[in-house]
Amino acid sequence: MSGPRQTSRPTLDSVLRRAHLSVALIAVVTAGLTLTVAALVALRVYSDQNLRLVARSMSYTVEAAVVFKDAAAAQEALALIGVNEDIDQALVSDAAGAPLAQWQRPQGGARYRIEHVLTGWIMPASLSFPIQHDQSVIGTIRLVPHSRGLLQFLVSGLACVLAGLLLSIVVAVRLSRRLEADLTGPLRVLAATAHRVRGERAFGLRVPPAGIAEINQINDDFNALLDELQAWQSHLQDENATLSHRANHDSLTGLSNRALLESELARAIAEARVVGASVAVLFLDGDRFKYINDTFGHAAGDRVLVTIAARIKRQLREGDLVARLGGDEFAILLRPLRSGADAVAIADNILAAMRAPIELPGGEAILSSLSIGVAVYPEHAGDPVALLGAADEAMYRAKQIQRGSRHVARPLPHLEEGSH
Fold it and tell me: Any catalytic annotation for residue 328?
């Protein structure tokens, strides 16, 4: 069965931008609707008052025509005023309610019809106003409003709302980018640093300070955690290096041990086999170490071993390896080697260095010597074990012949026969 499908998750930037845009849209639309409703209410109140003023003006104008029942004069007065005012219809009736004069605005096409519909939705339906003479009601004037500027007003209001919306969107985008720099920028750096620390184990990385206090506190805590991890990593590396050194070196002399010697010898012979080079092993053994240890004590024996190790190292070249195999036994790996004569020369130099007295902790000075066996690959052996064994055997022959001397191993049988 396949695992759960990974779904893409929105970034903090996109979430904040959508939030800003949503808030801006809601705020602008709400403000626009509120202003529009308030404007329409104000327009209705203004239209009602204006309609009353027009009705009062018309009642004064047609008062004489109503008194004398002059329909033509009343008709002329209605037309004169209605043309210049926002009036759709005007009707004058006498006291009995009988129509005396009537005026209606000529219909002017689509715009007139739209304004007429909008007027019916927004403006008052009609207004009846009394016509008085000598404080007596002699008739009534009824007006039906028509707002010629209503369509233009609504279009202008809508344009303002749209302009405000666009302006708010622009401001929201700029605020979003600024917030991204102030908020999401440091968070992005923190996330990227944490990802690199996790993937690369780069505990030396640090997060820069942030301008926001809470994020800066998170960065400080994260940096403190990295400090602890880096210190712990350094401690582990030091421990591993110490353990590795202890595993491959002798604690008394600081020389390599048998395990490291055998590993490096195998590698050196493998490389020499490929390029056709030579490798030599010198096997060294102390001649009077047991006597010195039993006579002068273990501290004196340790001093002798440390001195021997130092004198051997001074005679070696860069790249050569000397190891303590145990007790007073040492082995030297010589690489690279031009000829067996170079190995013999180094052995002679070590023997010469051992002729100097060794000062013991108690102040005594004694002489100590080494017996050395020399074996060269591929003349004396064809593999690491055999080469080390040939050098060991040559060392015992040197002891048998004369202590404090060196002896070269016997060539392999097929090489020896070829020499004859």
Answer: yes
